[in-house]
Design a protein that fits this description.
Length: 170
């Protein structure tokens, strides 16, 4: 990519207010690159945990995708106060809304990490890197190990500047 265009894009990004920057970067990355989708599904007849969520790992956290279904009930004895606050805030802001016995994500939402994302989805403590799995069942922790030492795991600049659609590369 032309160095001047890269500098101009960096200048534009630098002017975006910090409160929007992280989510914008994550959305740019997930929208302009082919990324693995991770799933969290719980629906056992002997358990109150019910969830059916999808998400993507980004350099800035874990993005739970619109339409994901979170457990309707938060298990306060199994959650930290912080997690309860996060879920309540998502409900208050209509990011999580009741639908068909679940709480549904009405928009994509970026969490700091897969554990917070998984815990918000379950309404209980989650070890996100073991609860989020690829379609073929690979745990997120194993996925990260596999790509941590390969060139198949692109850097942030590669994701942003080399994978933006061709209309932006001209």
């Amino acid at each position: 990519m032309n160095t001047n265009i890269r500098k101009e894009i960096h200048n534009i990004i630098d002017e975006i207010p910090e409160q929007y920057l992280t989510t914008l970067k994550a959305l740019l990355i997930t929208n302009f690159t082919e990324q693995e989708i991770f799933y969290m599904k719980f629906d056992h007849p002997d358990s109150e945990l019910k969830a059916d969520a999808k998400g993507k790992l980004t350099p800035h956290g874990f993005l739970v995708l619109k339409g994901s279904k979170a457990n309707a009930k938060a298990f306060e004895g199994c959650c930290t106060t912080r997690l309860i606050e996060i879920r309540n805030k998502l409900i208050k802001e209509n990011i999580l809304t009741p639908k068909d016995g679940y709480l549904e994500f009405t928009q994509d939402h970026l969490f700091d990490d897969p554990t917070y994302a998984g815990s918000a989805v379950l309404g209980a403590m989650s070890y996100g890197k073991k609860d989020w799995k690829t379609k073929n069942g690979t745990l997120l922790c194993d996925y990260e190990k596999r790509y941590a030492t390969t060139t198949q795991n692109p850097t942030y600049d590669t994701l942003i500047f080399e994978n933006i659609p061709n209309t932006f590369n001209k």
